[in-house]
From TrEMBL:
Keywords: NADP, Oxidoreductase. Residues 16-324 form the Enoyl reductase (ER) domain. The keyword Protein biosynthesis does not apply. This is NADPH:quinone reductase. GO terms for molecular function: NADPH binding; oxidoreductase activity, acting on NAD(P)H. Pfam families: ADH_N, ADH_zinc_N_2. PANTHER family: QUINONE OXIDOREDUCTASE PIG3 (PTHR48106:SF18), QUINONE OXIDOREDUCTASE PIG3-RELATED (PTHR48106). It comes from Kribbella albertanoniae. Gene3D superfamilies: Medium-chain alcohol dehydrogenases, catalytic domain, NAD(P)-binding Rossmann-like Domain.
């Protein structure tokens, strides 16, 4: 396939406005790898870290993008039929090898989830990494059960909105935070039972509503808010550290006896595509299509608008997912 394609290539860390589309050769798949004709991809914090020079284990030049949706274009081993709708995510995409910010991407067959849906490509493009992270955090990290309560710290992020929707669909009472009072109504629209304006003291506000605390808490902001999030959790409850919206990644001088409230468990989640089984992803797509799972897309961009999209992500101005339609 001696052709070229449009892609966003990072030669080194840059400012959002320096991101450009260029022409590069269409990649060829080796056995065990699959080439996808990309229709859409979502933007993720991981790519912000890569672009800003904050990522570890990244090599340049690289095409960013840890997820993409589209159709199978070539599969040397025949794992997928040409034209099959698929989502690809994680597994080294956009870090160890070129990712989804392109018209074609080549990924290991193990990173692909097949799907069948009538959702438009932009909506589908919002879902893979967002649902994988939300699903894995709730079910692997927190082991949620119907009837429990969950606090989502960082609730207007794309994962936060998705986690609230999934938790509600699973029968939980949802507390969710935003630092912007103007976004409280957005949280309510997405099924949040108790929206909380985050002034740094969320635990006290949670316990005003539910004195014993929540059974589960999902930390999407970072280690700077984690101590307060832990204080909102009931004895024998669990907090899961998943996100770093604040870019605070580590805990200096971690002293467990002082840091962890009595009887509160702390776990973490950083998943792969196989943490979202194909049947679960298909079910979520069906629920979104039926209007039963509330997913928020903040805005859809073209590839040529990638700089603007990254600026919005860097400045934290999005509520929900940013998507590029290829």
């Amino acid at each position: 396939m001696a052709m070229d394609m449009r892609a966003i290539v990072l030669d080194h860390p840059v400012e959002p406005e320096e991101l450009r589309v260029r022409r590069v050769p269409v990649p060829e798949p080796d056995p065990g790898w699959v080439r996808i004709k990309v229709e859409a991809f979502g933007l993720n914090r991981s790519e912000y870290h890569l672009r800003a020079g904050l990522a570890t284990g990244a090599t340049f030049p690289i095409i960013p993008g840890i997820e993409a949706v589209g159709t199978v274009d070539a599969a040397p081993n025949g794992e997928f039929a040409p034209g099959q709708q698929v989502a690809a995510m994680m597994g080294g995409m956009g870090r160890q090898y070129d990712g989804g910010y392109a018209e074609y991407v080549v990924v290991p067959a193990s990173s692909i989830v097949p799907i069948s849906t009538d959702l438009d490509w932009a909506t589908l493009g919002a879902l893979p990494e967002m649902l994988q992270t939300a699903h894995g955090s709730l079910f692997t990290g927190l082991a949620i059960e119907p009837g429990q309560s969950v606090l989502i710290r960082g609730g207007t992020s794309s994962v936060g909105v998705a986690a609230a929707a999934i938790a509600k669909e699973h029968g939980l009472t949802v507390f969710s935070t935003t630092r912007n009072p103007d976004r409280v109504d957005v949280l309510k629209q997405h099924g949040v039972d108790h929206p909380i304006v985050d002034d740094g003291n969320v635990a006290a506000k949670v316990r005003e509503i539910q004195p014993e605390g929540v059974q589960a808490a999902l930390e999407l902001v970072g280690t700077n808010t984690l101590p307060d999030t832990l204080k909102a959790v009931a004895v024998h409850g669990t907090a899961c550290f998943t996100g770093m919206l604040s870019d605070n990644w580590s805990i200096p001088d971690f002293y467990p006896m002082d840091y962890l409230p009595n009887g509160v468990r702390l776990t973490a989640y950083s998943g792969e595509s196989n943490d979202l089984p194909a049947e679960a992803f298909q079910r979520y797509c069906d629920l979104v299509a039926a209007g039963k799972l509330s997913i928020r897309i903040d805005r859809v961009f073209t590839m040529d608008e990638i700089g603007e999209a990254h600026r919005i992500m860097a400045d934290g101005h999005a509520v929900g997912k940013l998507v590029v339609r290829v």
